[in-house]
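Shipment paperwork, digital attachment
Item: protein structure file
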Amino acid sequence: MSKLVWSRREMLAQSLASSAVVGSMALTAGRVEAAPLATKEPLGSRISPGDDVVWLDGGAPSAHEGQSWGQPWPRGTRLDKRGYVLEAAGGKREAVQTWPMAWWPDGSIKWTGHATAANGARTGSLRVVPGTAKPEQTLSVYEAGDAITVTVGQTVWNVGKSGEALIRSARVGASEVLQSVRLLASAQDRPDDEDGAPTLARWTSAIESATVEQSGPIRAVIKLDGRHRGQMGNEPGDWMPFSVRLYFHTGSDSVRLVHSMIFDGDPARRFIRGLGLEGAVPMRDKLHDRHVRFAGENGGLWGEAVRPLTGLRRDPGKAFRDAQVAGAATPPLDQMGAAVRQNIEYIPAWGDFRLRQPNSDGFSIVKRTKPGCGWIDVDTAGRAPGFGYIGGPSGGVAFGMHDFWQRCPVGLDISDAAGDTARFTVWYHAPDAPAMDLRFYHDVMGMESFEAQNRGLDVTYEDYEPGWGDASGIARTTEFRIWALPATPPRERLAEMGKGLATPPRLVANVARVHSAGLFGPWSPIAAGGPLRGKIEARANQELDFYIGQVDQRRWYGFWNYGDVMHSYDNDRHVWRYDIGGFAWDNSELSTDMWLWYGFLRTGRADVFRLAEAMTRHTGEVDVYHSGRFKGLGTRHGVQHWADSSKQPRISNAAYRRFYYYLTTDERCGDLMRGLVDSDHALKTVDIGRKVLHRAGPLAGTGAVVADQPLPDGQIFMQFGTVWGSLLGAWLTEWERTRDTRWRDRIVAGMRSIAALPKGWLAGGGAFDLASGRFVGGGSEVNMSHLNGVFGVFEITAELLELLDEPAFRKTWLEYCELYNAPEAEFRARTGASGKGRALTQAHSRYTAYAGVQLGKPDLVKRAWSEFFGAGDREGRDQSRGANKVAGAAVLKPVDEIAEVSTNDAAQWGIAATVNLTLIGDALE
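Attachment content:
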């Protein structure tokens, strides 16, 4: 087995030893001037090289609710049976919970998952080392009958295995502080703007199964699966399948809930009105000792009592006022000023409170005394972190939602706070917002035939087909947290909890460790160099800054939208082409997710991580079908995330999810990748190339090959890059997670059968046998497509060729890498065919660089940099890419823009820059 390609310094030194080659390369780009490096401080610049795990935002937080992360290991590392500990500077050791996540082919450990207790790991220079340490506290999980009991310190959580309550109760000591946590959903049978009164129906959660996935001693994970139960008229009742994982950490008063639901209704008949998580809180304290809190902006906190004692005409006494404001128990009532004590029942008791964030720019709070009485305005501000509290000195509950204002319209409710049992609700779609309308956005427009649909594609770039722009089967994941508390915490602590909910502290593996372990293909951290490297690194940083900035400037927020970015820009209107066919939402086109994850790995930037995280959550859920006829496939870029009729594995691609799964141990992301291992079978009924033979005009000849006659049962036509290459990520991940060799064998079967085709990888695709995983027909003609190499297949193949010794496939792959960007005359001489279908020269420069290094050919190395720097190519003509501020009558509000910007260009430029700097950066200057 050869060494990792991207660490072959010996090969680079030998292949680039010629001063003529190096001098020529410097001359090619010699007119570029030096530019400053990243303006955002990379995480790598503020950590010790010896650290194994670091805090994403720099220093350790003042508090956290428990952590889990994935730790990488170089090949040959054996999983230590003793377990692992976190070792800090000075040798102090802290217990962690450990589990294996992935394995190298030789049986050595590749990734481990680790968990810490709440408020753990708050020291510097953290290393993961074999050893044992006793946790200061532990948790226990007890499963009996119809319930699961989780005990964390003095808190006992009762989790339901059936019925509607996800959490049936939580006790702190002898006091029950929480009851009946359940999911809520409501929908109507017509849109808001249609005449007539809609029929409104409500559903609650119905648990169908419960699984204890981890049981301590530091972390417990319970997965609940079910559906929403109810009925709308005469229609079947149960709908919207869900899964909820509950995470408990030693030392924490809270449970984290990761909730995923699938919209499986008819968009023309189901208009979601409200989606929420509700719980009940027993109220035992006097009305003036009951406290309500909502977190505000920048660590602010709004807090009042159900019956206020401040601001009255008569003074109850300073001790009473101070205690109520602080959230503490007030003195005995007989110590209260007589004028207030004798008339306390005439002070209104406020029972209902609402916080609403209808958009990303402002929230408001209102309250009322009880139903039947009017609401009064309380306060307003900008962006709420989504945190609330109801309770008193004898116990209470804090609750909230991650990415709250970003998922608008959202809300928090507290009701019946003046009664015996209060209720709180976290609305992840507020019921008083407009009902969701998931119908397709235009009618047929005369496009019944493939010919007409292709003409529409030619003018708007939208692949339209009646009935295919269906939202049924898409999903969304939302994260909640609930605290069971013995008493109302101080205001400063509640504000801190709200900030931690909005921006959770996170431990991550040191990116240097990920790199040194040889994971995720050819990439390398930012390194010092001369002016050319500085120029590339500056632009790489500018691209990341620009898109992070655009998310906020363009308000790319909302329930379905948050986490995605737009595809292309309209320089005339000074807006992104949000309403123009395939130019609107990006939907992972040309590997945007992968670009952001490599951006994080190279820089360690927290803001890049969080955009990549949001994108992974979005693209893996909203842009992919999880049930129905398109299950396992994703939707091409379009005006609505589900609108385009091109349903393909290139969007559902597991290669985009692997980063987040391994870096965070996120089990939901693991579910999504596992659900894709058989997604090739969806192509039995979804023919990706069904319109190609009817296509005419500029989009004809895009590289698709369609059989002249139907293939035998069990066979489909499959493109190597956009389809087979997109499935490799799921198969590789399942193999390394489970060590089940059938997934390795399926990959190998595809490799060997491609190599056996007359034209190998140059054929572009062939007939694929679903049962065996082999290509069994075609492949006798060269067929090139620029799309075949830009959906993660390069990066996954680079990984696989270090794991699997398949010389024939390696040969045909390197031939493709060498020839894709070859001059037309050379391409024709070596293949006997024209190079028609080749584009994205700059993006494919990494293929040339890879071939040059692997084959030891300095001329290819030289050619790769020439291709990357443009050589007159459209993609490479603007290397500065500085954003200009547009203001005034041209735009609604001042925004940054770059002329003719495309997310595709940014993503592929960024990935190509990463690979080229890694493989041949030594020859750059």
